[in-house]
Write a structure and sequence with these properties.
Number of domains: 1
CATH architecture: Alpha-Beta Complex
Strand order of the largest sheet: 5-4-1-6-11-8-12-10-9
Bound molecules: uridine 5'-triphosphate
CATH topology: Spore Coat Polysaccharide Biosynthesis Protein SpsA, Chain A
Number of helices: 11
CATH superfamily: Spore Coat Polysaccharide Biosynthesis Protein SpsA, Chain A
Oligomer: single chain
Structural class: alpha/beta
Length: about 290
């Protein structure tokens, strides 16, 4: 019987060099979009998919991420005393159950694959989701919930995918497609950051995955790939042929908030999606364009 998907790993130990100096003393994952940090969007998305246990792979300077999910006792008392009950109710509604967050430390950011390997004890022998919080998703149905559904249908590994212009494939993990069934594609190979002329397609992996625990055995070999990093894509590729492996054309939009332009676009898109702000945002944007 298929094991239920209850666990998620959120790697947050990267250096965020594309966002310096903002990320010098602050974690990239704490950058807000409108009024919520990126990490909060990722956790909410995972909860909407039925995830109950979270593992943050953290590193130096990332403590604020964990603190964000603590009960802010003094703040709550102050809000109560000032009659700010709506704000208080919202904080409490977003509170995670005690004990459902674990953190592990990745002392040196050796790559995404290495970060996932650091969560091996948490993962154990269960399927798990991965959410890269700097990929911010705007979807009617949580992107991780879409992946969870595809996992139940296919019984194996599923990665969220999207098409990018051919000249940008060298920035992504790229799919070698076996069979294209529309919403789902079966995969016969994966290659991380290929040269444009060698890319097997322009279907690329975004920062959302559901993987089987066997990937850990491959990660443990610590083989270095593109950019000298331990690449998750390389170990995922080794599962192909031994387990079902599919790409899912998810429904929704992705914003690369690790990138300045992507982050700016996310601010606008998420502000426009908020009924209390949309009209004003539209109005002031007109003044600029
Ligand atoms: P990125 O590729 O965006 O790297 O990582 P980065 O270091 O965060 O940012 P840049 O490229 O230097 O600007 C994708 C995700 O994987 C995590 C990051 O925190 C991010 O969520 N990551 C990456 C780790 O946790 N450890 C690593 O060694 C590398």
């Amino acid at each position: 019987m298929l094991k239920p998907l209850k666990k998620a790993v959120l790697p947050v130990a990267g250096l965020g060099t594309r966002f310096l100096p903002a990320t010098k003393a602050t974690a990239k994952e704490m950058l807000p979009v409108v009024d919520r940090p990126l990490i909060q969007y990722a956790v909410d998305e995972a909860r909407a998919a039925g995830i109950e246990q979270f593992c943050f792979v953290t590193g130096r300077g990332k403590t604020a991420i964990v603190e964000h999910f603590d009960v802010a006792f003094e703040l709550e008392r102050t809000l109560e005393a000032r009659g700010k009950l709506l704000e208080l109710a919202q904080l409490r509604a977003e509170q995670l159950d005690p004990g459902c967050i674990t953190t592990v430390r990745q002392q040196v950011p050796m790559g995404l694959g290495h970060a996932i390997w650091c969560a091996r004890s948490f993962i154990g022998d269960e399927p798990f989701a991965i959410l890269l919080p700097d990929d911010l998703m705007q979807c009617d149905v949580s992107c991780t919930a879409q992946l969870a559904q595809a996992y139940r249908e296919t019984g194996g590994n599923v990665v969220a995918i999207e098409q990018v212009p051919m000249e940008r494939v060298n920035k992504y993990g790229v799919l070698d497609i076996d069979q294209d069934m529309g919403r789902l594609v079966s995969i016969k190979g994966l290659v991380e950051k290929p040269a444009i002329e060698d890319a097997p397609s322009n279907l690329t992996i975004i920062g959302r995955y559901v993987l089987m625990p066997e990937v850990i055995g491959h990660l443990a070999k610590m083989e270095r790939g593109a950019g000298g990093e331990v690449q998750l894509t390389d170990s995922m590729a080794k599962l192909i042929g031994t387990q079902p492996f599919h790409g899912l054309r998810y429904e929704g939009r992705r914003f690369d908030c690790g990138d300045k332009l992507g982050y700016l676009e996310a601010q606008i898109a998420f502000a426009l999606a908020r009924p209390e702000m949309a009209a004003q945002v539209r109005e002031f944007l007109k003044g600029y364009v």
